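Our example copied in:
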Amino acid sequence: MRLFSLLFCLIAACGNAPQKTFDVPSEFMSYYQSFSEAGSVTTDNLIIQFGPLDYPRVGQCWTGPTTPIITIEPNYWGTVSELQKKEIIWHELGHCVLGRAHRTDFLSDGWPASIMYPTQFDPNYIFNQNYEYYRKELFGE
């Protein structure tokens, strides 16, 4: 009887294994790939989707029990530049893939100390003027 119970538990547990899902639509793929390459970070368990968010949110990461989900506000997405889109996706991937929380401190020159700052700031400053600093800070280098 004990052997039967043990076998049943093993079989039942195998049937309940969480499923991994990778669904990154083409609208988001280049930003995901640039993040992945910049930090040598990949995942096979992520969903990025459009969905309504309450203002002022433009992106949100939800890390539930199985697959992390990033939701992007579609109306805002259609109004911003490529660099702003990249900042949104990198910020949300910082939450969902790297497990990073918001940072609200500032550098000595007055700029946010991290792309994990809770509101958007100048993406040109992040990705062009100070790319190496923000890349290293985000990926913990």
About this structure: Residues 70 and 110 are 29 Å apart (CA to CA). Residues 3-13 have pLDDT under 50 and may be disordered. Strands lie at 22-23, 46-50, 59-63, 68-72.
